[in-house]
Amino acid sequence: MTAKSEHPYPLTPEVFAALEVTKRGCDELLVEVDWIQKLARSQATGVPLRIKLGLDPTAPDIHLGHTVVLNKLRQLQDLGHTVIFLIGDFTSMIGDPSGRNATRPPLTAEAIAINAQTYYQQASMMLDPAKTEVRYNSEWCDPLGARGMIQLAAKYTVAQMLERDDFTKRYRSGIPISVHEFLYPLMQGYDSVALKSDLEIGGTDQKFNLLVGRELQREFDQEPQCILTMPLLVGLDGVEKMSKSKGNYIGISEPASDMFGKLMSISDDLMWDYYTLLSFRPMAEIDLMKQEVAAGRNPRDCKVMLGQEIVSRFHSEAAAEKALEDFNHRAKGGIPEDIPEISLEGAPMGIANFLKVAGLSPSTSEANRNIEQNGVKIDGVTIADKQLKIEAGTYVVQVGKRRFAKVTLG
User: Fold this and answer.
1) Binding site membership for ATP: which residues?
2) Which structural domain, as residue segments, surrounds residue 225?
3) Which is it for strands 341-344 and 403-409: parallel, antiparallel or unpaired?
Protein backbone atom coordinates (compact mmCIF):
# COMPACT_ATOMS: atom_id res chain seq x y z
CA MET A 1 0.00 0.00 0.00
CA THR A 2 1.49 3.32 -1.05
CA ALA A 3 1.37 6.40 1.16
CA LYS A 4 -1.19 9.03 0.18
CA SER A 5 0.43 11.92 -1.69
CA GLU A 6 0.42 15.27 0.12
CA HIS A 7 -0.53 16.87 -3.23
CA PRO A 8 -3.26 14.91 -5.05
CA TYR A 9 -2.58 16.86 -8.26
CA PRO A 10 0.83 16.90 -9.98
CA LEU A 11 3.06 19.93 -9.35
CA THR A 12 4.26 20.56 -12.88
CA PRO A 13 6.66 23.26 -14.12
CA GLU A 14 3.57 25.11 -15.45
CA VAL A 15 2.14 25.27 -11.92
CA PHE A 16 5.30 26.89 -10.57
CA ALA A 17 5.44 29.27 -13.55
CA ALA A 18 1.87 30.32 -12.69
CA LEU A 19 2.92 30.77 -9.06
CA GLU A 20 5.72 33.08 -10.17
CA VAL A 21 3.26 35.18 -12.21
CA THR A 22 0.91 35.34 -9.22
CA LYS A 23 3.61 36.54 -6.84
CA ARG A 24 5.17 39.16 -9.13
CA GLY A 25 5.15 42.46 -7.23
CA CYS A 26 2.80 41.15 -4.55
CA ASP A 27 3.06 42.05 -0.89
CA GLU A 28 1.69 38.80 0.52
CA LEU A 29 0.15 35.52 -0.70
CA LEU A 30 -1.92 33.64 1.87
CA VAL A 31 -1.72 30.66 1.99
CA GLU A 32 0.89 29.85 -0.65
CA VAL A 33 0.68 26.07 -0.32
CA ASP A 34 -3.10 26.25 -0.76
CA TRP A 35 -2.73 28.39 -3.87
CA ILE A 36 -0.21 25.96 -5.37
CA GLN A 37 -2.73 23.16 -4.86
CA LYS A 38 -5.52 25.21 -6.46
CA LEU A 39 -3.28 25.93 -9.47
CA ALA A 40 -2.37 22.25 -9.75
CA ARG A 41 -6.03 21.20 -9.58
CA SER A 42 -7.01 23.73 -12.23
CA GLN A 43 -4.29 22.58 -14.58
CA ALA A 44 -5.16 18.89 -14.07
CA THR A 45 -8.94 19.33 -14.46
CA GLY A 46 -9.08 22.23 -16.94
CA VAL A 47 -11.47 24.13 -14.63
CA PRO A 48 -10.48 27.83 -14.35
CA LEU A 49 -10.03 29.32 -10.90
CA ARG A 50 -12.34 32.14 -9.80
CA ILE A 51 -10.41 35.33 -9.02
CA LYS A 52 -12.38 38.02 -7.19
CA LEU A 53 -11.78 41.76 -7.08
CA GLY A 54 -14.31 43.81 -5.19
CA LEU A 55 -14.50 47.54 -5.93
CA ASP A 56 -16.67 50.16 -4.33
CA PRO A 57 -17.27 52.77 -7.05
CA THR A 58 -16.70 55.72 -4.73
CA ALA A 59 -15.14 57.76 -7.55
CA PRO A 60 -15.71 57.42 -11.29
CA ASP A 61 -12.15 57.66 -12.58
CA ILE A 62 -9.25 55.24 -12.39
CA HIS A 63 -5.61 56.28 -11.91
CA LEU A 64 -2.47 54.16 -12.27
CA GLY A 65 -2.61 53.21 -8.59
CA HIS A 66 -5.87 51.37 -9.24
CA THR A 67 -4.35 49.51 -12.17
CA VAL A 68 -1.89 47.60 -9.96
CA VAL A 69 -4.58 45.07 -9.01
CA LEU A 70 -6.16 45.22 -12.48
CA ASN A 71 -2.81 44.31 -14.06
CA LYS A 72 -2.56 41.33 -11.73
CA LEU A 73 -6.06 40.22 -12.73
CA ARG A 74 -5.07 40.41 -16.40
CA GLN A 75 -1.96 38.32 -15.76
CA LEU A 76 -4.14 35.64 -14.12
CA GLN A 77 -6.68 35.83 -16.96
CA ASP A 78 -3.84 35.21 -19.40
CA LEU A 79 -3.17 31.99 -17.47
CA GLY A 80 -6.75 30.93 -18.26
CA HIS A 81 -8.59 31.88 -15.07
CA THR A 82 -11.87 33.75 -14.63
CA VAL A 83 -11.96 37.21 -13.08
CA ILE A 84 -15.02 38.35 -11.17
CA PHE A 85 -15.19 42.14 -11.34
CA LEU A 86 -17.44 42.71 -8.35
CA ILE A 87 -19.08 46.10 -8.08
CA GLY A 88 -20.00 46.78 -4.46
CA ASP A 89 -23.24 48.64 -5.07
CA PHE A 90 -24.61 47.31 -1.75
CA THR A 91 -21.44 47.81 0.32
CA SER A 92 -20.93 51.31 -1.13
CA MET A 93 -24.08 52.31 0.72
CA ILE A 94 -22.34 51.29 3.97
CA GLY A 95 -18.98 52.94 3.22
CA ASP A 96 -15.63 51.16 3.62
CA PRO A 97 -13.95 52.15 6.91
CA SER A 98 -10.56 50.68 5.91
CA GLY A 99 -7.67 52.95 6.86
CA ARG A 100 -9.99 55.71 8.02
CA ASN A 101 -10.30 57.46 11.35
CA ALA A 102 -13.88 58.55 10.73
CA THR A 103 -17.06 57.09 9.29
CA ARG A 104 -17.11 57.30 5.50
CA PRO A 105 -20.33 58.85 4.16
CA PRO A 106 -22.41 56.39 2.12
CA LEU A 107 -23.13 57.00 -1.56
CA THR A 108 -26.53 57.31 -3.21
CA ALA A 109 -27.69 54.53 -5.52
CA GLU A 110 -27.62 56.98 -8.46
CA ALA A 111 -23.99 58.02 -7.83
CA ILE A 112 -22.97 54.36 -7.47
CA ALA A 113 -24.58 53.42 -10.80
CA ILE A 114 -22.85 56.26 -12.68
CA ASN A 115 -19.46 55.60 -11.10
CA ALA A 116 -19.70 51.84 -11.64
CA GLN A 117 -20.37 52.22 -15.36
CA THR A 118 -17.41 54.58 -15.86
CA TYR A 119 -15.18 52.42 -13.68
CA TYR A 120 -15.84 49.23 -15.62
CA GLN A 121 -15.44 50.96 -19.00
CA GLN A 122 -11.98 52.09 -17.90
CA ALA A 123 -11.09 48.74 -16.31
CA SER A 124 -12.00 47.00 -19.59
CA MET A 125 -8.94 48.64 -21.11
CA MET A 126 -6.90 46.21 -19.02
CA LEU A 127 -9.13 43.16 -18.57
CA ASP A 128 -10.15 40.50 -21.11
CA PRO A 129 -13.96 40.85 -21.33
CA ALA A 130 -14.30 37.21 -22.45
CA LYS A 131 -12.81 36.04 -19.14
CA THR A 132 -14.52 38.61 -16.91
CA GLU A 133 -17.76 38.22 -14.96
CA VAL A 134 -19.28 41.54 -13.89
CA ARG A 135 -21.38 41.13 -10.75
CA TYR A 136 -23.11 43.46 -8.28
CA ASN A 137 -23.21 42.40 -4.64
CA SER A 138 -26.77 43.66 -4.23
CA GLU A 139 -27.70 40.39 -6.05
CA TRP A 140 -27.22 38.39 -2.84
CA CYS A 141 -27.01 41.08 -0.15
CA ASP A 142 -30.46 42.60 -0.73
CA PRO A 143 -32.28 39.23 -0.51
CA LEU A 144 -30.62 38.49 2.87
CA GLY A 145 -33.04 40.77 4.65
CA ALA A 146 -32.95 41.52 8.36
CA ARG A 147 -33.16 37.85 9.42
CA GLY A 148 -30.33 36.78 7.13
CA MET A 149 -28.17 39.73 8.21
CA ILE A 150 -28.56 38.75 11.88
CA GLN A 151 -27.71 35.12 11.11
CA LEU A 152 -24.62 36.25 9.19
CA ALA A 153 -23.55 38.61 11.99
CA ALA A 154 -23.72 35.67 14.42
CA LYS A 155 -20.79 34.05 12.58
CA TYR A 156 -18.27 36.76 13.57
CA THR A 157 -17.45 38.25 16.96
CA VAL A 158 -16.86 41.82 18.10
CA ALA A 159 -13.46 40.72 19.43
CA GLN A 160 -12.52 39.53 15.93
CA MET A 161 -13.61 42.87 14.47
CA LEU A 162 -11.53 44.80 16.99
CA GLU A 163 -8.41 42.93 15.85
CA ARG A 164 -8.51 45.29 12.88
CA ASP A 165 -6.01 48.14 13.32
CA ASP A 166 -8.20 51.07 12.31
CA PHE A 167 -11.08 49.92 14.53
CA THR A 168 -8.70 49.37 17.46
CA LYS A 169 -7.14 52.82 17.10
CA ARG A 170 -10.53 54.53 16.90
CA TYR A 171 -11.86 52.56 19.88
CA ARG A 172 -8.84 53.41 22.04
CA SER A 173 -8.95 57.06 20.99
CA GLY A 174 -12.62 57.38 21.81
CA ILE A 175 -13.50 58.05 18.13
CA PRO A 176 -17.00 56.72 17.40
CA ILE A 177 -17.45 53.47 15.47
CA SER A 178 -20.95 52.96 14.13
CA VAL A 179 -22.39 49.43 14.28
CA HIS A 180 -23.01 49.47 10.52
CA GLU A 181 -19.24 49.74 9.94
CA PHE A 182 -18.82 46.24 11.39
CA LEU A 183 -21.15 45.06 8.64
CA TYR A 184 -18.77 46.17 5.86
CA PRO A 185 -16.07 43.49 6.25
CA LEU A 186 -18.81 40.98 7.01
CA MET A 187 -20.66 41.74 3.76
CA GLN A 188 -17.41 41.78 1.78
CA GLY A 189 -16.64 38.36 3.22
CA TYR A 190 -20.11 37.12 2.31
CA ASP A 191 -19.41 38.15 -1.30
CA SER A 192 -16.69 35.48 -1.36
CA VAL A 193 -19.21 32.89 -0.15
CA ALA A 194 -21.78 33.90 -2.79
CA LEU A 195 -19.19 33.81 -5.57
CA LYS A 196 -17.26 30.73 -4.34
CA SER A 197 -14.03 32.59 -5.02
CA ASP A 198 -10.68 30.80 -5.08
CA LEU A 199 -8.56 33.92 -4.72
CA GLU A 200 -9.34 37.48 -3.68
CA ILE A 201 -7.06 40.36 -4.61
CA GLY A 202 -6.80 43.72 -2.88
CA GLY A 203 -4.44 46.40 -1.64
CA THR A 204 -2.48 45.88 1.57
CA ASP A 205 -5.06 48.05 3.35
CA GLN A 206 -7.72 45.41 2.55
CA LYS A 207 -6.04 42.44 4.24
CA PHE A 208 -8.47 42.26 7.18
CA ASN A 209 -11.53 42.32 4.90
CA LEU A 210 -10.05 39.61 2.68
CA LEU A 211 -9.38 37.38 5.68
CA VAL A 212 -13.00 37.72 6.79
CA GLY A 213 -14.03 36.17 3.47
CA ARG A 214 -11.72 33.23 4.09
CA GLU A 215 -13.22 32.65 7.55
CA LEU A 216 -16.82 32.94 6.38
CA GLN A 217 -16.24 30.44 3.58
CA ARG A 218 -15.15 27.95 6.24
CA GLU A 219 -18.35 28.73 8.19
CA PHE A 220 -20.36 27.89 5.05
CA ASP A 221 -18.37 24.65 4.46
CA GLN A 222 -16.57 26.01 1.40
CA GLU A 223 -12.92 25.66 0.50
CA PRO A 224 -11.40 28.91 1.81
CA GLN A 225 -10.13 31.41 -0.72
CA CYS A 226 -6.49 32.40 -0.90
CA ILE A 227 -5.56 36.06 -0.51
CA LEU A 228 -3.21 38.17 -2.60
CA THR A 229 -2.39 41.66 -1.37
CA MET A 230 -0.72 44.15 -3.69
CA PRO A 231 1.35 47.16 -2.57
CA LEU A 232 -0.18 50.62 -2.75
CA LEU A 233 1.51 52.49 -5.60
CA VAL A 234 3.49 55.52 -4.41
CA GLY A 235 2.44 58.71 -6.16
CA LEU A 236 4.44 61.30 -8.08
CA ASP A 237 5.65 62.93 -4.86
CA GLY A 238 7.56 59.75 -4.02
CA VAL A 239 6.09 59.72 -0.50
CA GLU A 240 2.32 59.19 -0.26
CA LYS A 241 0.23 56.53 -2.00
CA MET A 242 -1.17 57.67 -5.34
CA SER A 243 -4.38 59.56 -4.67
CA LYS A 244 -6.53 62.15 -6.40
CA SER A 245 -7.04 63.98 -3.11
CA LYS A 246 -3.25 64.35 -2.75
CA GLY A 247 -2.81 65.50 -6.36
CA ASN A 248 0.03 63.02 -6.95
CA TYR A 249 -1.76 60.79 -9.44
CA ILE A 250 -1.72 59.88 -13.14
CA GLY A 251 -5.22 59.31 -14.49
CA ILE A 252 -5.57 56.66 -17.20
CA SER A 253 -7.82 58.99 -19.22
CA GLU A 254 -5.35 61.92 -19.12
CA PRO A 255 -3.92 63.22 -22.43
CA ALA A 256 -0.95 61.19 -23.66
CA SER A 257 1.53 64.06 -23.30
CA ASP A 258 0.47 64.75 -19.69
CA MET A 259 0.67 61.06 -18.79
CA PHE A 260 4.13 60.72 -20.35
CA GLY A 261 5.43 63.92 -18.75
CA LYS A 262 4.27 62.80 -15.30
CA LEU A 263 5.91 59.39 -15.70
CA MET A 264 9.16 61.09 -16.70
CA SER A 265 8.99 63.18 -13.52
CA ILE A 266 9.24 60.24 -11.08
CA SER A 267 12.53 59.54 -9.33
CA ASP A 268 14.96 56.98 -10.71
CA ASP A 269 14.46 54.77 -7.64
CA LEU A 270 10.65 54.90 -7.82
CA MET A 271 10.85 53.96 -11.52
CA TRP A 272 11.72 50.36 -10.61
CA ASP A 273 8.60 49.99 -8.43
CA TYR A 274 6.53 51.30 -11.33
CA TYR A 275 8.19 48.77 -13.64
CA THR A 276 7.39 45.89 -11.28
CA LEU A 277 3.79 46.90 -10.62
CA LEU A 278 2.73 48.51 -13.90
CA SER A 279 4.87 47.11 -16.72
CA PHE A 280 4.08 43.92 -18.61
CA ARG A 281 7.77 43.31 -19.35
CA PRO A 282 9.23 40.08 -17.90
CA MET A 283 11.00 40.54 -14.56
CA ALA A 284 14.20 39.08 -16.05
CA GLU A 285 14.24 41.94 -18.56
CA ILE A 286 13.64 44.52 -15.80
CA ASP A 287 16.40 43.01 -13.65
CA LEU A 288 18.77 43.25 -16.62
CA MET A 289 17.92 46.95 -17.06
CA LYS A 290 18.66 47.53 -13.37
CA GLN A 291 22.08 45.93 -13.80
CA GLU A 292 22.78 48.07 -16.87
CA VAL A 293 21.85 51.27 -15.00
CA ALA A 294 24.08 50.21 -12.09
CA ALA A 295 26.87 49.76 -14.66
CA GLY A 296 26.41 53.26 -16.06
CA ARG A 297 23.43 53.25 -18.44
CA ASN A 298 21.40 56.47 -18.29
CA PRO A 299 18.22 55.71 -16.25
CA ARG A 300 16.37 58.21 -18.45
CA ASP A 301 16.45 55.63 -21.27
CA CYS A 302 14.58 53.15 -19.06
CA LYS A 303 12.11 55.80 -17.92
CA VAL A 304 11.32 56.67 -21.54
CA MET A 305 10.62 52.98 -22.25
CA LEU A 306 8.30 52.80 -19.25
CA GLY A 307 6.49 55.98 -20.25
CA GLN A 308 6.08 54.74 -23.82
CA GLU A 309 4.71 51.39 -22.65
CA ILE A 310 2.12 52.93 -20.30
CA VAL A 311 1.00 55.63 -22.77
CA SER A 312 0.69 53.04 -25.57
CA ARG A 313 -1.52 50.91 -23.34
CA PHE A 314 -4.05 53.67 -22.68
CA HIS A 315 -3.72 55.60 -25.96
CA SER A 316 -1.68 54.17 -28.87
CA GLU A 317 1.91 53.66 -29.99
CA ALA A 318 1.58 56.71 -32.24
CA ALA A 319 0.35 58.82 -29.30
CA ALA A 320 3.29 57.56 -27.21
CA GLU A 321 5.77 58.57 -29.92
CA LYS A 322 4.15 62.00 -30.22
CA ALA A 323 4.23 62.42 -26.42
CA LEU A 324 7.97 61.68 -26.44
CA GLU A 325 8.53 64.23 -29.22
CA ASP A 326 6.57 66.87 -27.28
CA PHE A 327 8.50 66.06 -24.11
CA ASN A 328 11.87 66.41 -25.83
CA HIS A 329 10.70 69.62 -27.50
CA ARG A 330 9.65 71.11 -24.15
CA ALA A 331 12.90 69.97 -22.54
CA LYS A 332 14.72 72.15 -25.08
CA GLY A 333 12.52 75.11 -24.20
CA GLY A 334 10.10 74.63 -27.08
CA ILE A 335 6.32 74.84 -27.10
CA PRO A 336 4.34 71.68 -27.94
CA GLU A 337 2.04 71.59 -30.92
CA ASP A 338 -1.75 71.68 -30.58
CA ILE A 339 -1.85 73.64 -27.32
CA PRO A 340 -5.36 74.73 -26.29
CA GLU A 341 -6.56 78.17 -27.34
CA ILE A 342 -8.54 80.13 -24.76
CA SER A 343 -10.42 83.43 -25.06
CA LEU A 344 -11.04 85.61 -21.99
CA GLU A 345 -12.53 89.03 -21.30
CA GLY A 346 -11.67 91.54 -18.58
CA ALA A 347 -8.37 93.23 -19.44
CA PRO A 348 -6.42 94.40 -17.60
CA MET A 349 -6.43 91.32 -15.36
CA GLY A 350 -4.20 90.41 -12.41
CA ILE A 351 -1.75 87.61 -13.26
CA ALA A 352 -3.00 85.20 -10.57
CA ASN A 353 -6.64 85.58 -11.62
CA PHE A 354 -5.57 85.37 -15.28
CA LEU A 355 -3.95 81.96 -14.67
CA LYS A 356 -6.96 80.74 -12.68
CA VAL A 357 -9.60 81.86 -15.21
CA ALA A 358 -7.53 80.37 -18.06
CA GLY A 359 -7.60 77.02 -16.23
CA LEU A 360 -3.81 76.91 -15.86
CA SER A 361 -3.92 77.02 -12.05
CA PRO A 362 -6.71 75.66 -9.81
CA SER A 363 -6.74 78.78 -7.60
CA THR A 364 -5.15 82.21 -7.28
CA SER A 365 -3.13 81.03 -4.27
CA GLU A 366 -1.72 78.14 -6.32
CA ALA A 367 -1.02 80.59 -9.17
CA ASN A 368 0.96 82.80 -6.77
CA ARG A 369 2.93 79.77 -5.61
CA ASN A 370 3.73 78.93 -9.24
CA ILE A 371 5.03 82.49 -9.74
CA GLU A 372 7.13 82.34 -6.55
CA GLN A 373 8.71 79.12 -7.82
CA ASN A 374 9.54 80.73 -11.21
CA GLY A 375 7.11 78.31 -12.84
CA VAL A 376 5.16 80.81 -14.97
CA LYS A 377 6.24 82.02 -18.41
CA ILE A 378 4.45 84.36 -20.80
CA ASP A 379 5.82 84.34 -24.34
CA GLY A 380 8.92 82.61 -22.99
CA VAL A 381 9.63 85.20 -20.28
CA THR A 382 9.59 84.04 -16.65
CA ILE A 383 7.15 86.08 -14.56
CA ALA A 384 8.33 87.15 -11.09
CA ASP A 385 5.83 89.95 -10.28
CA LYS A 386 2.67 88.67 -8.54
CA GLN A 387 1.10 92.13 -8.98
CA LEU A 388 1.49 92.10 -12.77
CA LYS A 389 -1.56 93.23 -14.77
CA ILE A 390 -2.11 91.47 -18.11
CA GLU A 391 -3.26 93.84 -20.85
CA ALA A 392 -5.44 92.91 -23.83
CA GLY A 393 -3.61 90.72 -26.32
CA THR A 394 -2.71 87.14 -27.25
CA TYR A 395 -0.08 85.28 -25.23
CA VAL A 396 1.52 81.83 -25.05
CA VAL A 397 1.38 80.96 -21.36
CA GLN A 398 3.27 78.14 -19.64
CA VAL A 399 2.75 76.97 -16.06
CA GLY A 400 5.19 74.34 -14.81
CA LYS A 401 6.67 71.93 -17.33
CA ARG A 402 3.48 70.58 -18.87
CA ARG A 403 0.69 73.19 -18.88
CA PHE A 404 0.54 75.40 -21.97
CA ALA A 405 -2.19 77.53 -23.53
CA LYS A 406 -2.55 80.24 -26.11
CA VAL A 407 -4.65 82.84 -24.30
CA THR A 408 -6.38 85.80 -25.91
CA LEU A 409 -7.48 88.43 -23.40
CA GLY A 410 -10.01 91.01 -24.55
Assistant:
1) 244
2) 13-230
3) parallel
